[in-house]
Each structure stands twice: as structure tokens, then as C-alpha cells.
Design a protein that fits this description.
about 325 residues; alpha/beta; Rossmann fold; 4-stranded antiparallel sheet; 13 helices; 11 strands; about 35% helix; nucleotide-binding; ATP hydrolysis activity; Oligopep_ABC_C; Peptide ABC transporter ATP-binding protein; ABC_transporter-like_CS
């Protein structure tokens, strides 16, 4: 693994205008994140925490309000030509393969679409066949003339992955890549992503709400809450010894955790009205139980904000 990151976000903010002139929603509210060459990073958090918006911003689909994204040391430019070149090197794999694939296109056309958009001049049939083989659909010629409705859910997801691989990207962003699949198929797709990393040196950002998935696939994990990363580090370190109460709560619901699940009260706050102090304090089980009081940090939790967590990882929590 190289020391310089392949993809890097620095001080990233993404805000959306409020309704009827109301306050802006801070979907991403200060994020530093690195992804190294050949590294798989899991971005974890519950729905609405901003992880998909962060992923879209890293892909150049949403321009940041502040901060910047760099790829191979070069700042990302948002001109049409620069983005087209960038998206050849960084590909997206979406959650729902049925929604990602045009039902009127054959598997061959679905995989070849990226080649045609980018003006590929080599042997198209050979490139499509190789991408399908790498994605585990063999012999590939057997799938060329099939339509999405003729495939299983796992096969459809492999076609989506093949469509990303055909351009030989350096990094893929996978947004909940196995959420819509049966449990028996999930392991196969995760094993495929790991094999692609080992064989091709492919980097990946895997967006998920499932810490069990992160444990099985990632080298590093970043836990996101209300627009910020609140804990990050090597996956074994974070998931065997979580420091942030939010990470502890997410882990507590896994069957293998062995303890009683932590039930968080209420919903995540509105990103247009982020509370003062620690942004998790209104739902924090450590604060609610009196443990933060006993540690002498309860007032800081309620009133003192925390700095953006640096790219070296750690935990953003007064109590921790």
C-alpha cells in the first residue's frame, strides 16, 4: 500500500438550501477521509447520516460547498471534460441492481455502455467478456444476450460490477452493494470484491449501515453521524474496542456482540438544526445513564463542540 492516498477529502462540506428560505441542511459538515491504493474503507452509519451524500461528493456527482477532493494528488476539477476522465478511473456500484440496469438492454449492452461513452477503441467484445469473467459470470458469452429479468439478484449485481470493471477503474464506490441480496448471495459478492482487490489492486469505498459487512471486507472503517465522521481506524481496532457511544450502539445489535442491544432514543436531528455541543449528545446512552456525569464531562458534551476528526483516525467524543 502506498503512503500517499489515492483519494482524499479535506475539510469537505456539502450543504443544501432549506425549504422556503429556511436554514440550509448540512448533509456533510466537515470530513477528512483518505483511501489508499488497494485499500477497502467502509463508511458506516444509519440512514440519513450523510454517508451517501459524502460518497456522491467523492464521485464528483455533488460539488462540495467547501473543502476539496483530490485523486492521485490532483484536485478534482468539475468541468465536464475533467469529470468524464475522472469517472473512468472511479466507478459507482449502486445498491439496487434491478434499478441500475435498463430492462430493455442485454447484459452485453449494459456492460459495453461505459466503453461506448468513453470512446473505447479496442476490441469491445473481448473487453466485455473479460469484465464479466472477472465479475464471476462464466462463460461470459452465455450471458451476452440475456436480459436483467432472466438473471438472479446475485447475477444482476455481478453485471453491475462488470459494468464498473470494464473501464479498468482504480477505485470503486459501492453504495450498499449487498443490501438487496439474499444472505446466501451476500458472501459471494463480498468475496468477489476482496478477490478484485487482491488481483487488480482495486481500491473501494463501501457505504453501508451494516457493521458486520464492514468487519468481513474492510481494512479501515469510518463511522459517520449527522454529517461527520465520529470514529475511524483499522477495522479490527474499531470493531473490537469501539470508543464512541454511537459505534458501541451500532455494534450492540449484531448477534455476535453477546451483550444487550443499546436502543437509541429518538431520531437523528435535522441536519439543518444540528445541536450545540457533541452532535450525538441528545441520544447518547452514556450521557443518559449518568456515566458522563460521573466522568465529569457531561457539561462539555452538551455545550462544547468537537473538532473535525483528522485523517489519521481516532474518536470525536468528550467521554472517550
Amino acid at each position: 500500500m502506498t503512503t500517499a492516498p489515492l483519494l482524499s477529502a479535506s475539510g469537505l462540506h456539502v450543504t443544501f438550501p432549506g425549504r422556503r428560505g429556511g436554514p440550509s441542511a448540512r448533509a456533510v459538515d466537515g470530513v477528512d477521509l483518505d483511501i489508499g491504493a488497494g485499500e477497502i474503507v467502509a463508511l458506516v452509519g444509519e440512514s440519513g447520516c450523510g454517508k451517501t451524500t459524502l460518497a456522491r461528493s467523492l464521485l464528483g456527482l455533488v460539488a462540495p460547498t467547501a473543502g476539496r477532493v483530490t485523486f492521485s494528488g490532483e484536485p478534482l476539477s468539475y468541468s465536464s471534460r475533467a469529470l468524464k476522465s475522472y469517472r473512468k478511473r472511479v466507478q459507482l456500484v449502486l445498491q439496487d441492481p434491478s434499478g441500475s440496469l435498463n430492462p430493455r438492454h442485454t447484459v452485453y449492452d449494459a456492460v459495453a455502455e461505459g466503453l461506448r461513452i468513453h470512446g473505447y477503441t479496442g476490441d469491445e467484445r473481448e473487453a466485455v467478456a473479460e469484465a464479466l469473467s472477472r465479475a464471476g459470470l462464466r462463460p461470459p458469452e452465455r450471458f451476452f444476450l440475456r436480459y436483467p429479468h432472466e438473471l438472479s439478484g446475485g447475477q444482476r449485481q455481478r453485471v453491475v460490477i462488470a459494468g464498473a470493471l470494464v473501464l479498468e477503474p482504480e477505485l470503486i464506490v459501492a453504495d450498499e452493494p449487498v443490501a438487496s441480496l439474499d444472505a446466501s448471495v451476500r458472501g459471494e459478492i463480498l468475496a468477489l470484491l476482496l478477490r478484485l482487490r487482491d488481483e487488480l489492486g482495486l481500491s473501494a469505498l463501501v457505504v453501508t449501515h451494516d457493521l458486520g459487512l464492514a468487519w468481513n471486507i474492510a481494512d479501515r472503517v469510518a463511522v459517520m453521524y449527522l454529517g461527520r465522521i465520529v470514529e475511524s481506524g483499522p477495522v479490527e481496532e474499531v470493531l473490537t474496542s469501539p470508543q464512541h457511544p454511537y459505534t458501541q450502539a451500532l455494534l450492540s445489535v449484531l448477534p455476535e456482540s453477546g451483550g444487550a442491544p443499546v436502543i437509541l432514543t429518538g431520531e437523528p436531528p435535522d441536519p439543518s438544526r444540528i445541536p450545540g455541543g457533541c452532535r450525538f449528545h441528545a441520544r447518547c446512552q452514556v450521557l443518559a445513564s449518568g456515566e458522563a456525569d460521573r466522568a465529569g464531562v457531561a457539561d462539555r458534551c452538551r455545550t462544547e463542540g468537537l473538532p473535525v476528526l483528522g485523517r489519521r483516525g481516532g474518536v470525536a467524543c468528550h467521554w472517550a
